[in-house]
Specification:
heterodimer, A: alpha+beta, Ubiquitin-like (UB roll), Alpha-Beta Plaits, 4 domains, 5-stranded mixed β-sheet, 4-stranded antiparallel β-sheet, globular, disordered C terminus, B: alpha/beta, Rossmann fold, de novo design (two linked rop proteins), 3 domains, 4-stranded parallel β-sheet, 20 helices, 43% helix, 13% strand, binds flavin mononucleotide, binds iron/sulfur cluster, binds FE2/S2 (inorganic) cluster
Chain lengths: 366, 447
Amino acid sequence: MKVTIDNITIEVEPGTTILQAARKIGPEVAPPAMCYYEPLKASGGKCRACLVKVTAGSEKDPRPMPKLVPSCITQVQDGMIVENTVNEQVLETRKGIVEFLLLNHPLDCPICDQAGECHLQDFSFQHGVQQTRYEEERRTFEKQDLGPNIQLHMTRCILCYRCVFTADQITGKRVHGVLNRGDHAEISTYIEKAIDNDFSGNVIDVCPVGALTDKTYRFKNRVWFTKPVDAHCDCEKCSGKVTLWYRGDEVIRVTARKNQWGEVLDFICNTCRFERKNTADWTIEGPTKVARHSVISANKYGANKIVPEFARRLAASQYKDVHEARDTSQLNIKQLPEERFKALIPPAGESAVAGIRSIQNWAEDK
Amino acid sequence: MSLPKILTAHTHLPGIETFDVYRKNGGYAAVEKAIKTMTPDEVVEEVKKSGVRGRGGAGFPMGMKWSFLAKPEGVPRYLVCNADESEPGTFKDHWLMKTIPHLLIEGMIVSSYALGANASYIYVRGELMYVVRILEKAIAEAKAAGFLGKNILGSGYDLELYVQPGGGAYICGEETALLESLEGKRGNPRNKPPFPAVKGLYQCPTVVNNVESISTTSWIVNNGGDAYAAIGIGRSTGTKLISASGHLKKPGVYEIPLGLPVQEFIYSDEWCGGIRDGHHLKAVVAGGSSVPILPAAMLLKTAAGEDRLMSYESLADGGFATGTMMGSGGFIAMDETTCIVRNTWNFSRFYHHESCGQCSPCREGTGWMEKVLHRIEHGHGSMHDIDLLVDVAKKIEGNTICPLGDAAAWPIASAIRHFRDEFEWHITNPQEATRPGAVFKGHMELV
Ligand SMILES: Cc1cc2nc3c(=O)[nH]c(=O)nc-3n(C[C@H](O)[C@H](O)[C@H](O)COP(=O)(O)O)c2cc1C
Ligand code: SF4
Ligand code: SF4
Ligand code: SF4
Ligand code: FES
């Protein structure tokens, strides 16, 4: 069946959701998703980040839908016409969703292990406004240990329920759920019972924010200083297909592999995640392909492999002569002398300088 | 003119809560008539003809809802009665169930028969444990008399009726949250579609109806859908229970014929008897805390200057600009001693407390609005807070999983729409406004 999203028409299977169809077209028109997670049954519909406008329900019934609909759980109909990035109301509402999600959020990115791979950072950066209108006190929670390897920092949780579905669907026996209501609802293992299960560590990977983190990795490094490498091992419990995160020669973290949308490809067991931290445990496959908008890709292997447009912008934003105190965000790329520009691109395998600040400069200039 | 009494014809009789008295006064005749002389589809047809609309709040035609029920082979169907009644200002179901429990039980049997349900549930608000016991007793009596259980009246039709107390959460009155709760899960509303008519309780086709809606079905079976439709006005057929509260001389539960002028309902001695002595009507919340509040004058007359009637259409006349909604029939009258800001803050506390927290606009927005209103009420507000509230309410409305988000937004948006000067007065005169009992004496038109 045919569906048109932001004026681009695509053919999809019946049963496809609007979000899936949009992702098929490409990231430019794919709505943001903070709760939907394709590998997890019944996920989605909660955060409302993916709301879109359906201007024609179907070929047969071309009436528009009265309310914005959550694209992650709304199936396309033949001849449906959807507006996402081209619709004022959608964008305005999305700004509101960012504001709501950040309302009680601590925004302690500088000390948050998730920073750099945080979907809330990406979401607010791409869709939000710069200021909050919230003057009241934020709600906070004490940190909690969920067993020896996982820490829950509830204050950062956006209640996407992904970890709950993971506990339900991947880890067999559930000891993990939501207590209380409203803005005091909290993720919890009942009566702080430790999650004791071979697959419990996956809740860390599905968490879009820094609410569930890996204690074996805690505060070890910023993600953009580490090198992701795909590797596998013969594991009796899981597929053994993982990403190793290196600092120098040391494996400081092991995670499942994720697709372009940040969704886990194969859930991995706790042994692989928490205990196999030597290169000798693994067969290395090669550098992980990282989405180019990620700060992680501003890293190690060959910045020259990065799409030229991005490299140029990155370079422009970073370019600053110490003797010159000028505003680099206004810098026009064409003013850069060719040789200065080249000098900023390191030879393959070497490091480039990158960090949150430079990335933001880049975006401001965008 | 004698007033039509459909639900309250016998409620004044002593002992009507017992099976014997109820039976002697014509009780369970509808079960006999339906099961012995009508097919299930014929019962559905009568309910459709009656035009009776859901009394739980949304006002969806009951017969139409029934005809949407999916009927796949070999899959059980369920009828669930929504007796969670927790909307501030609404207390009619509570009163009906404790006063004449067999009316609901009889309606449940008739309705279950019509829908082909062999197991039906009554989900009762958790605070009402004594009502649960009353209903359980009534069920036992009906069962002993052969109106429930296996092979009812020798017809081969089986029905078991179960009463389930909730945990005391308002959100479990939302039909899909109710179903989740009934299944033993956390009471989070489901995303729709699928609707309960297709995938409801235990993923089976289910009809959810309000206590009052179901209680009308016996009368409709006995007297016919056309007779029911003859009462009322236009698409607002039949009678409606109104929970009248606030500064009225005679608050209480009233069964009114739909189409009764609002003026008459408030001031006639037959009904609420007017506003308490020496006071004047300032504002009314006409359908339970979720519907827009209206200034007295706007409630009594529509924008076109016509008398407003107690009907779905007339109350909604003028949209949200000058109208409101029938809702669940929780009629809260407020005289000039009422502070609208304080009242709005109070409602917002309720919605903040009752939001289930699933979707971001409602989870975060209800708390935010509550805090801003608290600030204004306590003399720390600023002028831009008013527009902030309007904007937050707008960002919640229509963007949530269930209508609780709207229900939280509407009272605030409407209070500001109609009583903005009162909010401004609170902000510009914090010292005066925070004195105990202080109320804005501005240009509001009292009636
Ligand atoms: C937050 C919320 C609370 C509700 N509470 C109740 C309730 O207590 N009783 C009720 O009958 N309907 C309640 N409803 C409406 C139900 O979802 C549903 O529409 C109704 O039970 C259907 O019955 P009816 O068609 O007979 O009115 C509530 C809806 C919402 C959104
Ligand atoms: S969860 Fe994301 S947005 Fe929140 S503090 Fe951590 S990095 Fe920042
Ligand atoms: S802890 Fe993380 S995964 Fe779990 S609900 Fe909160 S944000 Fe979602
Ligand atoms: S609107 Fe509020 S109550 Fe309804 S599902 Fe969303 S958070 Fe829960
Ligand atoms: S991703 Fe669709 S509602 Fe969260």
